[in-house]
């Protein structure tokens, strides 16, 4: 399995030197990739009913700008978005931004996209929250057209491009598109369209069932399930991705390397192609994030 880290985007702060040093330390450890998250806006939970974990109190760097910076700071590390909330963004602009990161990194971008959950963010960006899943299909088709042709003619339900194209085109043609999400319509979409799946769930019976559904849907779509990558996220403590700052105190301390390895073994058995360690929600400094990633790399190398 290819090994990576989740960039601790909500905790690393705004010091550009610390951000650079973190990425360079991760690369020096021999990690294969680094994953960054996306939120343009955070909403006030006192004013809005939010079911997701992030609010206006969480800090998010803009992913394409951040990856452009990290492209210059690193040499070999694959740079992945996990995920860009595609339907709240203009498709042609995402195509341009992603292609630029791919060019500046020498072909190291893996674009992860998803539908998102924050209706407040969609409102502020002028996009319809309720049609976000349907629009993704059309957006994926247009992205691939824009990345592969000098001039595009595209006339869809939501997207229209007439004799126009982006320049420069990306290094990777095609550029890999991965998706995140666990709702059944998204699993079907991944099976039909995606190169891989950010599977942010546990490798338990429920997780095994979801991967089984992915494989069944892929076969129904005429695809080989083995050609769809699966990236497992290993949370290094007992925190919950969806709890945000509402973590229980007993879930903050890190689990043991033996527990990490047991989870990696479970993911290996389910056929995961990638894994990434999640060091957030453990009250760590930047230096401690780096050291924890080092410990995880040593543990993971002993397993796979």
Description:
- It is a single chain.
- Helix 6 packs across helix 7.
- The protein starts with a strand and ends with a helix.
- The chain has nine helices and eleven strands.
- The strands form two sheets. The protein has an eight-stranded parallel β-barrel, surrounded by six helices. Strands 6-7 form a two-stranded antiparallel ribbon.
- Helix 7 links the parallel strand 9 and strand 10.
- The protein has one domain: Luciferase-like domain (TIM Barrel), CATH 3.20.20.
- It has 304 residues and is α/β, with parallel strands linked by helices.
- The model has no long low-confidence stretch (mean pLDDT 95).
- The protein is 39% helix and 16% strand.
Blueprint (SSEs and pairs):
Blueprint: E1 2-6, H1 16-28, E2 33-36, H2 63-73, E3 78-81, E4 84-85, H3 91-104, E5 109-114, H4 119-125, H5 132-148, E6 152-155, E7 160-164, E8 177-180, H6 184-193, E9 196-199, H7 205-220, E10 229-235, H8 257-269, E11 274-278, H9 286-303
Parallel strand pairs: 1-2, 1-11, 2-3, 3-5, 4-5, 5-8, 8-9, 9-10, 10-11
Antiparallel strand pairs: 6-7
Helix pairs in contact: 1-9, 2-3, 3-5, 6-7, 8-9
């Amino acid at each position: 399995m290819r090994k990576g880290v989740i960039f601790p985007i909500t905790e690393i702060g705004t010091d550009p030197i610390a951000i650079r040093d973190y990425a360079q330390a991760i690369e020096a450890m021999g990690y294969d990739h680094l994953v960054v998250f996306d939120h343009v806006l955070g909403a006030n939970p006192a004013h809005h009913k939010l079911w997701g974990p992030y609010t206006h109190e969480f800090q998010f760097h803009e992913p394409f700008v951040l990856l452009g910076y990290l492209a210059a700071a690193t040499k070999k590390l694959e740079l992945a978005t996990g995920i860009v909330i595609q339907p709240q963004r203009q498709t042609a602009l995402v195509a341009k931004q992603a292609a630029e990161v791919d060019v500046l990194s020498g072909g190291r971008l893996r674009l992860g996209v998803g539908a998102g959950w924050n209706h407040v963010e969609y409102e502020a960006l002028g996009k319809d929250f309720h049609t976000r899943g349907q629009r993704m299909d059309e957006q994926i088709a247009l992205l691939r057209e824009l990345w592969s042709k000098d001039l595009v003619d595209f006339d869809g339900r939501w997207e229209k491009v007439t004799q126009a194209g982006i320049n420069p085109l990306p290094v990777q043609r095609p550029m890999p598109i991965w998706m995140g999400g666990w709702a059944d319509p998204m699993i079907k979409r991944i099976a039909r369209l995606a190169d891989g799946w950010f599977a942010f769930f546990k490798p338990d019976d429920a997780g095994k069932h979801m991967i089984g559904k992915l494989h069944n849907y892929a076969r129904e779509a005429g695809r080989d399930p083995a050609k769809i990558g699966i990236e497992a996220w290993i949370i290094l403590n007992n925190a919950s991705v969806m709890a945000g700052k509402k973590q229980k105190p007993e879930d903050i301390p890190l689990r043991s390397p033996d527990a990490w390895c047991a989870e990696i073994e479970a993911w290996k058995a389910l056929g995961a192609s990638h894994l990434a360690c999640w060091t957030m929600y453990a009250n760590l400094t930047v230096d401690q994030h780096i050291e924890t990633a080092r410990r995880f790399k040593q543990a993971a190398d002993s397993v796979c």
